[in-house]
């Protein structure tokens, strides 16, 4: 088809009115919608950059300025790591009492839980620190910082499978399409730096694991918010971000002039079309230019104290590992990145509690503890909220044959699980909430996913009911229509 004819076929109604020679269409639209119908203001530098907070935000003085979310994909087993229940040991090898099951829904791998055999923790537990927090031998480094942590042992959720549960925790909905936590915070509070994204994501997985999870882009997506608020994923090998380097023969001055000219063209188009994604493109070009200088410095560990590097463990110099990402998280926090989301897969131990769980803990325990201690050393922990946890827990009964110890496993368990948080105005040395004596159900002070989200926003100075975005005729928010701030864990 002739290109001119094809262009005429594809012309949009907006373009027809906007480009009509007489301008009648534009005048008519102006009369109907007024100035609010156009997006001319989005061409202003402060709107394009996305660096400014929304008017009125924060709603009150925040305790935390930034978040580091150490998300453990696949659901760590609270029964084996943090939630010590002597009765599980007593009932080892015996059927789970029906009174604990009720009408609960489990994954199709378990089906009906009636008659499943109880499985004792794989490693012993002990109390640690002045707080007396229970931590298993799987987590010796976390045990050493127990007095800096707040363990929430009454978390519960609704989904029984990984992707919906992760999506629910990170976006407030089990269905993809909503903005993630980091996107909401970047949209509401803006950026604290000019040279790096406000929302950075890094992923990792233990070597040799058979139970990895897929990292879907919508775990850090912007949903219906403008896409400039989505997370920027740093790669696990090579350059952290593609295409930052200039082509051979192009100097930085030439690149600057090219971007300036391109920005002027894009701003003209933005005024014509009012498409917020054009503003996103302008902001992305500018951020990429600034990151050409900031990213090489960010990833250069040459000036780090060797003792600090050693504290993060033997894998800290290996790009793409959880240890490397934890040190990067600290360096990003120092440089004003607001939301840092590390996602480590491989916790889905359906038949590998006695094998791969050791690997997971070995790869994540020391770096997580080192990150908390490093932030504390630098005075950053007070206003940095660090979160460690997965999308749900794992069943106190076995999945598999109890006579085959090498294949012991546990299935998904949404009804009670544990996360820990540190810094950011959360009380240290506290254990909040309880599960019952089989770690099956929440027995005291339940914390729903939406309560957890509301509390996170609260610590950043946001009233969760008031951070909203109108889409398809209704106001949406991270906590949907639910959520209560858990004030008892806040200092």
CATH architectural type? 3-Layer(aba) Sandwich
Q: Tell me about the largest β-sheet.
A: 9 strands, mixed
Oligomer status: single chain
* Spatial extent as radius of gyration: 25 Å
Low-pLDDT runs of 5+ residues are: 1-8, 20-50
Key words describing this protein structure:
491 residues; alpha/beta; Alkaline Phosphatase, subunit A; 9-stranded mixed beta sheet; two-stranded antiparallel sheet; 15 helices; 33% helix; disordered N terminus
Gist?
With 491 residues, this protein is of the alpha/beta class. It is built from 15 helices and 17 strands. The N and C termini lie far apart (68 Å).
Protein architecture, described:
This protein has a single domain (65-240, 308-489), classed as Alkaline Phosphatase, subunit A, CATH 3.40.720. It is 33% helix and 15% strand. It is built from 15 helices and 17 strands. It has helices at residues 3-10, 13-19, 24-33, 45-49, 78-81, 86-90, 140-144, 162-171, 181-189, 252-273, 276-298, 306-311, 322-334, 356-377, 449-459; strands at residues 66-72, 125-128, 133-136, 149-156, 199-205, 232-234, 339-345, 384-389, 393-394, 412-413, 417-422, 430-432, 434-435, 442-444, 447-448, 469-471, 474-476. The strands form five sheets. Strands 1, 4, 5, 6, 7, 8, 11, 12 and 15 form a nine-stranded mixed sheet that branches. A two-stranded antiparallel ribbon has the order 2-3. A two-stranded antiparallel ribbon has the order 9-10. The longest helix has 23 residues, at 276-298. The chain is globular.
């Amino acid at each position: 088809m002739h290109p001119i004819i094809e262009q005429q076929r594809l012309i949009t109604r907006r373009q027809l009115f906007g480009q009509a020679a007489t301008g009648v269409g534009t005048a008519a639209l102006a009369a109907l919608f007024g100035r609010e119908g156009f997006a001319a203001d989005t061409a202003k530098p402060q709107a394009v950059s996305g660096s400014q907070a929304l008017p009125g935000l924060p709603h009150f003085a925040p305790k935390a300025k930034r978040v580091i979310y150490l998300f453990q994909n696949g659901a760590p087993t609270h029964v084996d790591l943090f939630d010590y229940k002597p009765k599980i040991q007593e009932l080892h090898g015996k059927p789970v009492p029906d009174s604990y099951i009720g009408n609960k829904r489990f994954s199709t791998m378990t089906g009906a839980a009636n008659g499943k055999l109880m499985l004792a923790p794989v490693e012993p537990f002990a109390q640690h620190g002045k707080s007396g927090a229970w931590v298993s031998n799987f987590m010796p480094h976390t045990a050493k910082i127990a007095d800096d942590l707040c363990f929430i042992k009454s978390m519960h959720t609704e989904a029984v499978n990984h992707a919906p549960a992760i999506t629910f925790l990170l976006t407030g909905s089990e269905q993809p399409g909503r903005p993630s936590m980091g996107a909401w915070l970047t949209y509401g509070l803006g950026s604290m730096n000019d040279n790096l994204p406000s929302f950075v994501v890094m992923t990792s997985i233990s070597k040799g694991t058979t139970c990895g999870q897929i990292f879907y882009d919508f775990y850090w997506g912007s949903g219906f918010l403008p896409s400039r608020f989505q997370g920027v994923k740093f790669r696990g090998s090579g350059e952290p971000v593609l295409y930052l380097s200039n082509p051979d023969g192009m100097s930085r001055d030439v690149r600057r002039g090219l971007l300036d000219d391109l920005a002027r063209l894009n701003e003209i188009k933005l005024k014509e079309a009012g498409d917020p994604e054009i503003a996103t493109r302008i902001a992305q070009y500018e951020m990429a230019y600034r990151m050409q200088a900031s990213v090489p410095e960010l990833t250069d560990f040459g000036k780090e104290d060797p003792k600090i590097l050693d504290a993060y463990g033997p894998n800290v110099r290996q790009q793409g590992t959880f240890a490397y990402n934890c040190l990067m998280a600290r360096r990003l926090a120092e440089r004003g990145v607001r939301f840092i989301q590390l996602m480590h897969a491989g916790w889905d131990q359906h038949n590998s509690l006695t094998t791969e769980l050791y690997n997971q803990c070995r790869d994540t325990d020391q770096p997580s503890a080192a990150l908390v201690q490093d932030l504390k050393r630098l005075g950053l922990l007070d206003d940095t909220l660090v979160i460690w946890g997965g999308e749900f827990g794992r069943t106190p009964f076995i999945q598999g044959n109890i006579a085959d110890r090498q294949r012991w496993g546990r299935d998904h368990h949404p009804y009670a699980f544990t996360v820990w948080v540190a810094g950011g105005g959360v009380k240290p040395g506290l254990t909040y909430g309880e599960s019952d004596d089989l770690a099956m159900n929440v027995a005291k002070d339940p914390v729903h996913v939406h309560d957890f989200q509301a509390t996170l926003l609260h610590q950043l100075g946001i009233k969760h009911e008031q951070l909203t975005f109108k889409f398809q005729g209704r106001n949406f928010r991270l906590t949907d229509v639910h959520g209560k701030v858990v004030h008892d864990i806040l200092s």
